[in-house]
Amino acid sequence: MHPLAKLDHRYLWHPFTQMREWLKREPLVIVEGQGAVLRDVHGREYLDANSSIWTNLHGHNHPKINAALQHQLKRIAHSSALGLANEPASRLAAKLVGLTRLGKVFFSDDGSTAVEVALKLAYEFARRTRRTKKPRFVSLEGAYHGDTVGGVALGHIDQFHKAYSALLFRTDKVMSPYCYRCRFNRAKPERADAREYRKCNWECLDVLEQKFKAQKKQGNPYAGFVFEPLIQGAAGMIPQPAGWLRRAAQIARDYGALLIADEVMTGFGRTGIPGGAVSEISEKVSERVSRTQRPSFSPPHPHPPSLFASHHEGVQPDFLALAKGLTGGYLPMAATLTTQAVFDAFLGEYEDFKTFFHGHSFTANQLGAAAALASLDILQSPGSIRARQRLERSFRKELRTLWAHPNVGDIRQVGLVAGVELVKDWRTREPFDLREQAGIRVCETMAKQGVLTRPIGNVIVLMPPYCTTPGEVRRMVNSVGRAISGKLARE
User: For a Cys-Cys bond, which of 74, 189, 243, 391 suits 295, CB 3.0-4.6 Å?
Assistant: First the structure.
């Protein structure tokens, strides 16, 4: 075993990892990265098929981000945001406000804290504006919004959150528009994304509205509706059918709830170019679902295209939580954006104690802000936009080849995010028991083939960096197919 692997086994505790299993084998120790390729201590190369857990946008060792960090390092790495301002953070805040059409930015460290900030601000804003004395929040089934106590309270994945139930405040949940396993979907399984052939009358939206109506009747309407726009990540890459987000947001608005968009995973172009993948799915759905059954939907076409999933359907949230790709995958940094009205509710004289009493030591870190500014410049360049469009088309083409496997039940793609759901038989949708570790075994086989990703239960996640070439995308998808054939085909 390599000395670095021994150090890991002796001293490290890994997140979301059963350490008894971890200690049975030598771990991969990554030491280098270039573009979409990672290299371990033994010199073996791997394709980074989930962008280093959904964070890396432009590839590893990007020269423009490297240069921005080197330039900033010659000046200062960090100074406190408590009582001091700094140049890159101020410039980044101005840039983010311009891109999101919101009013103020609160910087923090990661996705969990970005959501926690939004939750605390929304809670106090609702109280100060006398919308409700005891603000309550609603989110979607399968929701994951981070690991802080507030984020966990908003989440609804028992496997992650049940152990901490005694620590949490109560939040409500409402059904997610999981077309593949929706109880209202009358369609029989087909070899296509379930959103394309579903047969329903948008009952999921009726259920959502009934939830808001019932809460209002109790005299305490929801203060906020928390959602991941277009696709839920840790829920299993659950995409929303075209038009759902816009209609759901309008229902929440009609009942006075603030919109809290968790774009930790979906932000910064990850869900594609507005009018691309979303409109393609919408056109296919229109062939199957009558116009009277669908909410009206016309994808916006901003120029340059928006980098945020909410804007794909013209939804403007009151709070926007950002992290992961904010710095291009280089450094931990997060941001919570909100409106001027929310900011104003916290203004007052010192003795009023209306200050937002929340903060982090590395808030508005200069290195993170410098990396983020460089990443945003790349994202908005015409070359990057064209490259992402080409990659999305190539990604979609390659994913279609996986329908040939009987253990593939659903393939869900939104932009440059894809989830491949594994089942025992596509005709019945029968799932593998989680104890069978179907997803884990497929990913372990992929790693032996030089492709790295991590499953969510029985869902194989593919999320390539934006620099990924057509040949590399083909290798990623082919690896999924070979691993399925080798591990699941005879089961």
Answer: 243
Structure-token pair, residue 188: 């029989």
- The residue among 379, 409, 443 that closes a domain is 379
How open is the CA angle 146-151-152, to the nearest 5 degrees? 90
The alpha carbons of the chain give a radius of gyration, in whole angstroms, of 22
Which amino acid does the sequence have at 255? Answer: Y
419 sits in which H/E element: strand 417-425
Distance of CA 287 to the CA centre of its chain: 29
Residue 103 sits in the same domain as residue 130 = yes
How many folded domains does the chain comprise? Answer: 2
pLDDT per residue as tens digits for the range 312-324: 999 999 999 999 9
Strand order in the sheet with 30-34: 30-34, 37-40, 45-48, 451-452
Same domain, 10 and 146: no
| Rounded (5°) CA angle 357-110-437 | 135
Contact 224, 122 (CB under 8 A): yes
Q: Do 280 and 395 lie in a common domain?
A: no
401 plus 339 within the same structural domain: no
Give 59-95 pLDDT, tens digit per residue.
Answer: 999 999 999 999 999 999 999 999 999 999 999 999 9
**Residue 235: CB partners within 8 Å, gap ≥ 6?**
140, 141, 142, 143, 144, 157, 176, 178, 456
Domain boundary, last residue among 342, 362, 379: 379
DSSP category for residue 250: H
Q: Do the strands 319-322 and 334-338 form a parallel or antiparallel pair, or are they unpaired?
A: antiparallel
Three-class SS state of 159: helix
Task: Tell whether 70 is covered by a domain.
Answer: no
CATH number at residue 33: 3.90.1150.10
Predicted TM-score (pTM) of the model is 0.93
Residue 68: inside a domain, yes or no?
A: no
Q: Quick one: DSSP state of residue 60?
A: B
Provide the residue count of the chain.
491
